Amino acid sequence: MTPPTAPADAASPRPGFTPADEAFVQDFATMSAFGATPAGGVDRQAASPDDVRQRRWLAGVLEARGLRVVYDRIGNQFGLLERVPGAPYVLIGSHMDSQPTAGRFDGAYGVLAAAHAVFRLAEEWERSGGVPRFNLAVVNWFNEEGSRFVPSMMGSSVFTGKLPLEQALATRDRDGVSVREALEPTGFLGDGAGPAAAFCAEIHIEQGRGLENAGIAIGLVTSSWAANKYTFIVNGDQAHSGATVMADRKDALLGASLLVVAAREVADRFPGVLHTSVGQLDVYPNSPVVVASRVSLLLDLRSPDEAVLEEADALLHRRITEIEESARVTVERHHSHSWGITPYQPDGVELARRCARRLGLSHTDVMTVAGHDSINMKDLVPTVMLFVPSSEGVSHNELEFTTDADMVAGLRLLTEVVRSLANGELDG
Amino acid sequence: MTPPTAPADAASPRPGFTPADEAFVQDFATMSAFGATPAGGVDRQAASPDDVRQRRWLAGVLEARGLRVVYDRIGNQFGLLERVPGAPYVLIGSHMDSQPTAGRFDGAYGVLAAAHAVFRLAEEWERSGGVPRFNLAVVNWFNEEGSRFVPSMMGSSVFTGKLPLEQALATRDRDGVSVREALEPTGFLGDGAGPAAAFCAEIHIEQGRGLENAGIAIGLVTSSWAANKYTFIVNGDQAHSGATVMADRKDALLGASLLVVAAREVADRFPGVLHTSVGQLDVYPNSPVVVASRVSLLLDLRSPDEAVLEEADALLHRRITEIEESARVTVERHHSHSWGITPYQPDGVELARRCARRLGLSHTDVMTVAGHDSINMKDLVPTVMLFVPSSEGVSHNELEFTTDADMVAGLRLLTEVVRSLANGELDG
């Protein structure tokens, strides 16, 4: 991977970059300092001090360009450009919160690109006197990552009515702090429902190798993979880890470990079309000399093929029955979340394709494996989702990287897409 | 398992019980209320509020019977009965701290039995004018369990010079609180090295099924099992748990799970003579959508046969090499703790055998798998270790149970053993 290039200043842009492009790259560097880690990543979990400081900075950047900053009841942050009094908005954005020890690009790129797209269009309309059909809103969704407060995509889930507001506000982190308690002192807890949306657009890094390997600048996201997300509780029986004879043990951690291994074996049966993971696993009582009585874990199965997902689900559950017997544990399944292959509106994909052609940007259709706020938004309004390349597909890692040139190409396409949406190109 | 019998009061003892036996059973019930859990167990981790309240209660019980209560530099609690000014002490006791959601008997029984044995002998000498050769000290060792502050057996390790005092005081729990910070406000941090020990005795529940299955009242502990305790760190690479293709992942949790399973497979190769466990396992960053980059875990191998332990260690390490390759992780081994089969002094075992015969109590030689403070003490002074039966071998579990009759039989034997030690029966 190449290191990030030091940006030139806006007054003397690098070849192929406009002053506005350099301004974007400079803002990106400033933004990446919030919660920066020594290894070049960021740590900005939702409503953490660094997330809060960064949101204040973003508010300042938006207000300096004449946008009005407002917050809704779940702390989503909006920067409003109202050119058509009373008209609904094209919502453009992503999220600035991050996983612990995460990369600089995931989410944050999309929010800053949205802001700069709106700045560009605002300037253009200012200069030309042009009046779009829809207003524009930059959005920084609250708690997309879900590492501190489960579930992920919390802000967009409340905005789109998929998650009850009170349930979201009452969600607690591991220290017992609720979303409401975390947000209240920050001033980010508004009382409205946010701007009325007519369309939505989001740009994000790919978090995979597809675009980079193919040498393509832009991914046009046509749909999301299907996914099953399970919470499993493995129940055993507390015992002395030394004295208790092995045959008497009901070791919940052994059962959980067999389940982690089984999930990988299921994935190995479907190479390339089944992703699986256990990222979170908690042991009780988690003491060196106590056989664990309870282990909870979150396990995902994801596939671009719903039939594969169904078969994998059946295989996994057969293995669970075997594990219950061999490890003398019981496994409770809490089926927390599940979705099929859900398409983005084909009209939106075609609009983005026309925009990419106009700009001469190479592009291809892709599916998204990861969840994004736009997956929620597309069920509310027509939504366009764009990807730019991720170096080596590295993501949720401090070494996540996308070149300045790729970020700028994405920003240009996003600007073009938002212009088209604002002008009503999808509105009949 | 039979439920605990409601004790009669001391004035009208149950058949076979003396008023002093009933007084012990009543004190045991009172003691078990500290940190009591709804399921009938206790939760009294070292220096927790309930551990502190219980130690204050014990101090009151000891002082009410004329013992002088003192604390050493690591918070070990002593109740001194000085009948021979200047003579060293027979130290009798165990620990009152517990695992989270533990049983009422582990450790606490041994401290209370020690106190009542000393009360009985003090009364006897008071009545008879008898003068022993050694003084008596009840001891409640600090942090035997090691669930909050690692390592276990901390108080006796410092007392016996095996663990540097400053290292113990600087040990921090998961919330960053040091032993010194936890103990200082309690008043349990003394400045001396505690009483000079000449002999030691400890009584404890067996934490296994051997005595109960054989219908034997007393275990005479001849030695401890050999053990290797390892800390392993499994290193992978953070990645997006959905988007990253499976072949690119270096999943530390998969590697750790394979290691947990491998340890059990090694144990299955040596039925009955190899115990193994992973009780503690911590995942980083432990987020639902991040492939873990680092998992730390504590793994034990224990055996009554040093050759088996050596072979198991070699097998485990061969498996680790295979896991590193198959899961694309690296495993760092921190060899934290290791001991061979270490005998208690045979003279002490024979003394206890004579005492059991005198009292007509059935008895047998046993080894201890679990660690006990007496394992430390036997390297300093001749030490006698006794077991009473554990119902179904259940331990480190709220359902841990020993009958009143078994507890009282153990108390009687302990009293007899301490009388013999105090009278110099082992001193030439």
Structural class of chain A: alpha/beta
Radius of gyration of chain A: 23 Å
- CATH architecture of the largest domain in chain A, by name, is 3-Layer(aba) Sandwich
Proportion of strand residues of chain A: 15-25%
Domain unit count of chain A: 2
Q: Which pair of protein chains has the largest interface, and what are the residue counts?
A: A-B, 73 and 73 residues
What is the straight-line distance between the termini of chain A? 44 Å
Mean pLDDT of chain A: 95
- Tell me, what is the CATH class of the largest domain in chain A? Alpha Beta
Secondary-structure element sequence of chain A?
HHEEEHEHHHEHEEEHEEEHEEHEHEH
Q: How would you sum up the global shape of chain A?
A: globular
Quaternary state of this entry equals homodimer
The biggest sheet of chain A amounts to: 9 strands, mixed
CATH-assigned homologous superfamily of the largest domain in chain A: Zn peptidases
**Quantity of strands of chain A, as a count:** 15
Count, helices of chain A: 12
Low-confidence stretches of chain A: 1-5
